[in-house]
Amino acid sequence: MKIAYLGDRYSHSYAASLYLADKKSDFRGYKSVSDAAQAVMEGECDMCVLPSENSVEGAVTATEDILLEKPLYIRSRVALPIHHCFVTKGNVPFGVIETVYSHPQALAQCSLWLKTNVPQAKTVSVYSTSYALGLIKSENEAAVAASAGENATEAARNIEDYGNNTTRFLLVSKECLTEGRRASVIFGAENRPGGLLDMLELLAHAGVNMTRIQSRPSKTGLGDYRFFADFTLPDIRGNEALACVTDSLKKAAAYFKFLGRYDDIFMEA
To answer: What pLDDT does residue 19 have?
Structure first.
């Protein structure tokens, strides 16, 4: 089994991959979530791991766009605690740091720490936290990453602004599962009074518990949105409830896409 993920073995996505896929799989790192997803679309890999939501910064919009635009389905998901390190080239004073590289999500999750400890440094967004490590060429450069990797120094650990910093990751493929206690959909509501309410009432009528709803521009026009909804299915009548949701939304929604049925993977204690 070939699994695509963002970054390399020093990335958070790789750590998530070890929970979501068989550890004997062939794990392949890519420089962006789009490249990882495209590897699945082109048959280079069987599945890919995508970060979907962070407890501090919210939805990962690049992943939402992938799910909106490509025929990929969620197979499972896991939530991981995320800790960041401040990585430098040797033991240098923070005052000499001029540039800090990292993924934009990581920079945002550590923004208060960076402003306090390296206020003089400019931040530069790059493809991934692990890619940022390779950009440290001088003592004036640093990175925010999961670890220092090789030939670098962890100058500070756990620099995230919130101790409960958590990211949810998805395992997706071109095949849709038929079992699982959770499901996700994307739908569009008519732009009229009560349009969104009507869609939400359909979910309530089906007897499912909606656990998340997120809006994202449809890219078809200003003010037109798609809504991502996650929900849990009842134990006994899960199949019936899911059929009720999908059938009713297909008929009533301005747009509808089923994202998959799946279960959560829980971290080992």
So the answer is: 95
Here the tokens at position 184 are 């996700």
Q: In this structure, what DSSP letter does residue 251 have?
A: H
The pTM assigned to this predicted structure is 0.92
269 pLDDT above the threshold of 50: no
In terms of DSSP bridges, do strands 99-102 and 141-145 run parallel, antiparallel, or are they unpaired?
Answer: parallel
**Residue listed under structure tokens 């550590």:** 110
Tokens found for residue 29: 């790192």
Mean pLDDT of the chain: 94
Residue 169 dihedral angles phi and psi, to the nearest 5°: -120, 145
Name the maximum alpha-carbon separation found in the chain: 62
**Cα Rg, the chain, nearest whole Å:** 20
Amino acid at 74: I
**Is 195:189 a contact under the CB 8 Å cutoff?**
yes
* DSSP letter (8 states) at residue 94: G
- Two tokens, residue 116: 């306090």
Which stretches within 73-210 are classed as H helix? 104-109, 111-117, 129-133, 195-206
